[in-house]
Known about the structure:
alpha+beta
Amino acid sequence: MRSRLHAAATIVLTTGLVAALPQLLSLGEESSARAVAVDQSYPVPASGRYTVRGHGYGHGRGMSQHGAQGAALAGLDHGEILDFYYPGTGTGSAPKRVRVLISSDTTSDVVVTARPTLTVRDRGTGDKTRLPTDLGATQWRIDVTSGNRNVVDYLARGSWKRWRTLEGEGQFDAAGPIELHTPSGRYIFRGQLRAAMPTSTSTSRDTVNIVSMNGYVRGVVPYEMPALWEPEAVRAQAVAARTYASWSRAQNPDRYYQICDTTSCQVYRGVNGEHPASNEATTATGRTILTYDGEPAFSQFSASSGGWTVAGSVPYLRAKKDPYDDWSGNTSHDWSVGLTAGAIERAYPSIGKLRRIRVTERDGNGQWDGRVLTMVLDGRRNDVRISGDDFRWKFGLKSNWFSF
């Protein structure tokens, strides 16, 4: 769904036309996403080695994160940045909470560090009980018995002891953040930690963090953009992350989780991932999200547009020239890598000996007529027709905007 900057991600936009709008319109030529037929042939070099040159990092839809930084360096505020990358969107307020799947907790139990004010809620009865502090407990857990019942246990003097059997799912809460123990380490989360049943008949449980929207955004932004980039760029990222989470929540109102914590959604690490600078950006942008037709916008973004954004599935994800992506710190605006004919032959053995690469369709935007949509590997034994994305992923290229 996204490509990341330090990884590169999914993102959003605010409204408000800005004083610089005429400049933005003149710089941001817009284009349709219509495929352009081309006939570009690249015979195998005598050396057997291609140099693949390209632009951008990721799918190119929506906001370029490097472009946001370039725009902030050029003096645009976060509203102007978002208006440029998500034209036609409005603003609204985020919902108060979101349910996040914690993928690092691969076990069925939810284990937390004991602390004062820790409570457990039985979602079957609605009862919420303060956990005792006089048992010598160092950890508490919500586990599953062989009869698929939820139970609460505590660890004291090196062994687990049963404290209570629940009628429904269990959920930990406290007056402050809670430390969760997972197979990969300990993580601290705001809000509640629930042992959630994926379905009504599941015998396993998933850990779900129910957290305020801004508590969630604080744990996302530093993983999607360097927190010490220009403040207005980081604020744009905060709005984008909040918008995407609101959109995902709206798509999954009844599912036991509404967003995940990996690059398939947005990377989220709870309190462990927070940074003072990105926390400031989260606070400064309040509960603002981007909207379209009154609903949260689908705020896709990627690390670098390479100079042209790509049309997406909604009207505000437009293909347009992006002058802000090309700044001195963006090593992904232009890139090149070596690739041998032998590597291509090994990846696609049905072609036999590679004779040439033919690009047959591009998106029509920018150098070489833009991003590769379809291409043909011309081999002595067979030809193989693939997409530019297929080729990109097979060989680890930064984007599908490339030439040979």
